[in-house]
């Protein structure tokens, strides 16, 4: 057979005439010449039996008149048409169905009657809580795959698809393993811990677009210590006008193991605890609409290390976002940045930030922590391994938790009986995710431009200082064990800055001074410095607020704690939000009960309007800005006469504005000079080339 008469040539010829050319003529024209219309039915369709007989006759007649090779060509044509046209559709159907299912899930809000939500990768059944079941509560939903096995010390990845049907979302998931926690335990803490919780109005829809409040818990980056605040009271107090989210993230050994060997050749990632937080922000962007939330109006908040994380996300968002132009016209981070910057919002993951008792620890570089990684290898029997990360991943959870997720003295510092460092694991300056120390980045204006609200309690350090600090020397040892780079000369000034204070119950004589020093060095002064840097580096300094929480509690006073670290959290979330009705501190149901609605309304107002005063409790004072005059080069009386920062004083029966007192500002200036030794800053003129 020559080329022109081959089946493929025939197919090409027939194809040029259109698809109907390969079909028998009677199927195309509908003409049946052998059929005669019965009398009286000239305009009607022929009966089905007649059509069938005519079809059969026509087929046989056509078949007998057709040459065999043409029959073969027609068959080939039919097969090819089936393969080309039908097969791709069949192959794509499952994929298309899956994609449509996921897209449908994204368009499906939580059901107002049954608290059910489909996230595409899983469907969760929550519960209705609050007054008249007006709040839909979803607990223990996965936002990332279990960070176990080969996923240890790697950035989080999306959960696997689970299409098994409704999964119960009525119990908090295990929180992440903290330092020195026994394992196995009762299941409250585990390595598989990346769970998120959501509270939303039960009647919310996709069109609701409610402001979203994301809370990042604290724990000094070594524990999840504020894991299970319940958001019901906040949603109710907002008149069901917000969506609240909280979650777990990796901490301690599991979240902040650091070394160049961790990230060598793709072996792992650094700062994975912070990357978990980032993953939740992206999870919100993808899924919060199903709960009635607005992904374009997310306010992040946190307590303690969670508040410190909020500050870090202001920097990370800037680093991940577009470069900005400075006021002097330079771009891409060129120039000295002295004119300030107005950073882009990076990925637009949030529009406002709240920090309660922010924790600003030492921020070491990766090189600073190689000794810590060596210690972990020694503790786990991996010191001689040619592939240390594989060796560590081969160890079971109990071995790693019991032998390596424990505190040790910092290099050059004595061990017990002197105090061990309070926070053995912290985020590190990795040169990419966290390009440099936060104070340097803030001083250079390398942060995104969103409204901020940050403050502290009156006695931040009382829950951290050892009760047995009996002398100025004891105070110095405690401070240097936590900040080991402090020199003898620097430490010699501690007692003059923090002379002996009046005694407190149940504590030795120098405890009050040690507590004040640690609280100011680690929480209060860095917060003030942050706010001052923030307002100086903005084009517009009208979006920064601060507070001092000074709400008395008789039990705290009897224990010598004053108004301790994160004491404000009970007012922010409500006293029933941890242990249920009546489970909070007694004072919040009695003399301090009136504080709760005021604080909640300020916070809710900020979340909803990015201003704490807009929706404040009637009669409550306007919350004035940190630097009401727009700032000078510094908000200190010791720098060119500029005013000290203003903050809202919160006391029982008294909410009013106060100015940071001069003596505290002077002590903060002292710590600012020591910032390089505290590893809170690399040095005033020593700035890494971070390429911003």
What's a concise summary of this model?
It comes from Daldinia eschscholtzii. With 692 residues, this protein is of the alpha/beta class.
What does this structure look like?
Belongs to the type-B carboxylesterase/lipase family. Keywords: Hydrolase, Membrane, Transmembrane, Transmembrane helix. InterPro entries: AB_hydrolase_fold, AChE-related_enzymes, CarbesteraseB, Carboxylesterase_B_AS, Carboxylesterase_B_CS. It is an enzyme of class 3 (hydrolase). Its EC number is 3.1.1.-. The structure is a single chain. With 692 residues, the protein is α/β, with parallel strands linked by helices. It has a domain at 446-692: Rossmann fold (3-Layer(aba) Sandwich), CATH 3.40.50. It has helices at 7-16, 25-29, 48-65, 68-106, 232-237, 252-256, 260-263, 272-287, 305-320, 370-380, 388-394, 397-403, 438-443, 472-482, 488-491, 494-497, 511-536, 554-558, 569-573, 595-609, 662-673, 675-678, and strands at 116-118, 123-125, 127-129, 135-142, 166-168, 175-176, 189-190, 195-201, 210-216, 243-247, 293-303, 352-356, 452-457, 544-549, 646-651, 654-659. It has an 11-stranded mixed sheet, with helices on both faces. Strands 1-2-5 form a 3-stranded mixed sheet. The protein is globular and about 65 Å long.
Record keyword descriptors for this entry.
692 residues, alpha/beta, Rossmann fold, 11-stranded mixed sheet, 3-stranded mixed sheet, 16 strands, EC 3.1.1.-, transmembrane, transmembrane helix, membrane, hydrolase
């Amino acid at each position: 057979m020559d080329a022109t008469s081959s089946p493929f040539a025939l197919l090409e010829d027939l194809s040029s005439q259109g698809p109907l050319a390969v079909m028998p003529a009677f199927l195309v024209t509908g003409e049946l010449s052998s059929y005669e219309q019965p009398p009286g039915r000239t305009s009607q369709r022929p009966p089905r039996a007649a059509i069938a007989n005519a079809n059969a006759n026509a087929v046989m007649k056509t078949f007998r008149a057709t040459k065999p090779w043409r029959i073969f060509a027609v068959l080939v044509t039919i097969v090819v048409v089936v393969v080309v046209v039908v097969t791709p559709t069949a192959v794509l159907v499952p994929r298309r169905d899956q994609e449509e299912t996921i897209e449908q899930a994204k368009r499906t809000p939580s059901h107002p009657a049954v608290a059910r939500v489909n996230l595409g990768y899983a469907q969760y059944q929550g519960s209705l809580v609050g007054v008249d079941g007006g709040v839909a509560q979803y607990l223990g939903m996965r936002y990332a795959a279990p960070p176990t096995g080969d996923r240890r010390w790697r950035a989080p990845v999306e959960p696997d698809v689970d299409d098994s049907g409704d999964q119960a979302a009525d119990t908090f998931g295990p929180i992440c393993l903290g330092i020195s926690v026994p394992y196995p335990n009762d299941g409250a803490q585990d390595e598989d811990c990346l769970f998120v919780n959501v509270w939303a109005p039960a009647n919310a829809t996709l069109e609701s677009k409610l402001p979203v409040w994301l809370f990042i818990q604290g724990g000094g980056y070594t524990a999840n210590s504020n894991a299970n605040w319940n958001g019901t009271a906040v949603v109710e107090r907002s008149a069901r006008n917000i969506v609240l989210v909280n979650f777990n993230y990796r901490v301690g050994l599991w979240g902040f193991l650091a070394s160049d060997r961790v990230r060598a050749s793709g072996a792992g990632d650094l700062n994975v605890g912070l990357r978990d937080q980032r993953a939740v922000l992206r999870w919100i962007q993808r899924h919060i609409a199903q709960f009635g939330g607005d992904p374009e109006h997310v306010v992040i908040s946190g307590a303690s290390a969670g508040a410190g994380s909020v500050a870090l996300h202001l920097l990370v968002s800037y680093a991940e976002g577009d470069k900005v132009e400075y006021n002097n016209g330079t771009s891409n981070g060129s120039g000295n940045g002295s004119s300030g910057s107005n950073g882009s919002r990076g990925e637009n993951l949030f529009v406002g930030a709240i920090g309660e008792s922010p924790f600003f620890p030492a921020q070491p570089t990766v090189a600073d922590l190689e000794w810590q990684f060596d210690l972990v290898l020694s503790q786990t029997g991996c010191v001689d391994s040619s592939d240390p990360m594989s060796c560590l991943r081969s160890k079971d959870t109990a071995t790693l938790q019991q032998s390596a997720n424990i505190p040790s003295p910092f290099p050059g510092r004595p061990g017990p009986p002197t105090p061990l460092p309070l926070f053995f694991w912290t985020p590190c300056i990795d040169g990419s995710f966290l390009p440099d120390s936060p104070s340097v980045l803030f001083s250079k204006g390398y942060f995104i431009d969103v409204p901020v609200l940050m403050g502290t309690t009156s006695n931040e350090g009382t829950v951290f200082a050892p009760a047995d600090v009996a002398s100025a020397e004891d105070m110095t040892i405690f401070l240097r064990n936590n900040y080991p780079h402090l020199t003898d000369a620097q430490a010699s000034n501690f007692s003059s800055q923090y002379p002996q204070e009046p005694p407190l119950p149940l504590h030795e004589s120098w405890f009050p001074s040690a507590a004040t020093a640690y609280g100011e060095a680690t929480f209060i002064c860095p917060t003030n410095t942050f706010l001052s840097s923030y307002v100086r580096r903005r084009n517009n300094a009208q979006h920064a607020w601060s507070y001092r929480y000074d709400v008395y509690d008789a039990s705290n006073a009897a224990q010598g704690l004053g108004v301790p670290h994160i004491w404000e959290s009970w007012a922010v979330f409500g006293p029933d939000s941890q242990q249920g009705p009546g489970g909070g501190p007694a004072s919040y149901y009695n003399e301090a009960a009136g504080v709760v609605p005021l604080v909640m309304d300020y916070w809710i107002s900020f979340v909803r309007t990015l201003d704490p005063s807009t929706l404040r409790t009637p009669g409550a004072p306007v919350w004035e800005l940190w630097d009401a005059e727009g700032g000078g080069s510094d908000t200190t009386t010791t720098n060119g006469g500029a005013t000290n920062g203003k903050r809202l004083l919160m006391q029982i029966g008294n909410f009013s504005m106060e100015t940071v007192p001069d003596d505290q500002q002077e002590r903060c200036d002292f710590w600012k000079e020591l910032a390089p030794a505290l590893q809170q800053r690399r040095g005033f003129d020593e700035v890494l080339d971070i390429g911003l």
